[in-house]
Amino acid sequence: GGDPGFQKDTKSEDRSDVRKPAPQISPSEIDSTIKMLEEVEDYTFLTLCDNFKRGTMALDIECGTGKYTGLLSEKGATVTGVDRDPHKIKLAQKDTKKRIRYLVHDYLKPLQSSVQYDLVTCHHLLCSAKTKLHLKLMLKTCFLAIRPGGKFVAINDNNFQHPDEFPKLIPSGYIKATDAQVGPNGFFPDGSIVVQET
What does pTM read for this prediction? Predict the structure, then answer.
């Protein structure tokens, strides 16, 4: 039985525990995948945030250069964008709309404002938590800012997905890769995570 063209190499040692390298991805595949991911993520984000009225008070935590603060503002929300990187806030302010306010703030600490928001969002914030304590502090910052009955929307990546699982994403139109050598359980020998999203 079996494939007559296939012969098992009995001379080589058993290497079943060695992880296969990630497939090589061309720059054009990466560019098209990033564009597609942005379209899917934008659609998902706006769908989850939908059903708010003009003037809804929204807080975008880890707003970066203001992409999602801008999308919320275009939909009619009055938005505050928060990021701990002053350079990103400066870039966001260059393209500011009248309903967007930007603040430099460390999201491991609750906002000092007494304002509570109808909608609090964060993108790839929670998956960047370095410890359980950091995750708890990030969530505390988010939830203290939400008014009773408000909404919380978080978009995240699975940083613990092993590279052997990446090819399963391709039929859905996603390409995720790492060029790192993978150790046991998807971590480098020093314990840091290997996964790098592209």
Answer: 0.67
